[in-house]
Amino acid sequence: MTDQPELSVIVPFYNEEESIRGMHASIVAAVEPLGIPFEIVMVNDGSRDRTLEIATEIASQEPRAVVVNFRRNYGQTPAMAAGIEQAHGRILVTMDGDLQNDPRDIGEFLAKIDEGYDIVVGWRFNRQDKLISRKIPSMIANWLIGKVTGVPIKDNGCSLKAYRASVIKAIPLYSEMHRFIPAMASIAGPRIAEIKVRHHARQFGQSKYGLSRVYKVLLDLMVIKTVASFTSRPLLWFSVLATPLALIGLLALAFSMWHWAAVTGTLPLPVAGTGLIFLLAALILMLSGVLGELVFKLGDVREQGFSRLTMKVWGNDAATLGEVDRHA
């Protein structure tokens, strides 16, 4: 590409040979009238059909298209993470490759970003999916995610989202984490907006996702809640978790000592052993909190020191600032 792209459209594909040409054409038709330099990052997530072949053919004819290829299927979140890592745009838009998301909505996402928002989430208000297997579980999950994380998004599962590159590239993604990006990013306090988007029924093939991913989402939700709650004061929260274990352990040992001194003269080993186990578990949690506190404080000190360094260098030599950024 001759120009640095303003926009990167990231589209993961998995066995979508019938959809990929139509998706490319619809993205070009929707974004070209906006008059901004853009690129299309097509991520082949280990497809076993002709998806990679067709994507490579498109990229050979389209200078604004690039292909990222996985040797095997890793899942939607790793595919999106790879596309985000390879994208060069100031604004990144992610979407599914099955033609259910509509690229004509991209202009509205960019307008919201220009209003000052850092993340814009799509809401499939008229979702064209099966009621029992897709829509009802999604509604329950969205309600649960909003309650647990405190970030009330109506449609966390919609892949059509827009981000400032500086925000999304700093968020680690793994497992099914792509649906929790607003919750994970909320730690840094970004401005988040949600807009209604079009949604079409699947034209080709079958959905690659079903009820089997529910347990992964629940586990990831627990991780997100832990990270969001413990980030700034890990020692406090780990101490709170350790308190019930310590109380149970102390009660068990107290009962054992009383039983030994006042009742039989023998120590009830099962109860005493249980008390020791609970006390050790509480100690491990406390030490984990101390370790988390050290990591957080050292990271904060490093960030403050780096900020002072960059401010100092900026006043002297902008080129040197770039050198500092690359080695940070």
Task: Describe the model.
- It is a single chain.
- The chain is an alpha/beta fold.
- The chain has two domains: 7-230, Spore Coat Polysaccharide Biosynthesis Protein SpsA, Chain A, CATH 3.90.550.10; 234-326.
- Helix content is 53%, strand content 12%.
- It has a seven-stranded mixed beta sheet, sandwiched between helices.
- Helix 1 (20-31) links the parallel strand 1 and strand 2.
- The protein is elongated.
- The two termini are 28 Å apart.
- Mean pLDDT is 80; it is low at 301-328.
Describe what is shown at a glance.
The chain has 328 residues and is of the alpha/beta class.
The unreliable regions are 301-328
> How many domains, as an integer?
2
Largest sheet: 7 strands, mixed
Silhouette: elongated
Radius of gyration, Cα only, in angstroms?
Answer: 25 Å
CATH C-level class of the largest domain:
Alpha Beta
Give, in order, the helices and strands: EHEHEHEHEHEHHEHHHH
Distance between the termini: 28 Å
Secondary-structure-based class equals: alpha/beta
CATH topology of the largest domain: Spore Coat Polysaccharide Biosynthesis Protein SpsA, Chain A
Oligomer: single chain
Mean pLDDT: 80
User: Which strand-content bin applies to the residues?
Assistant: 5-15%
Number of beta-strand segments:
7
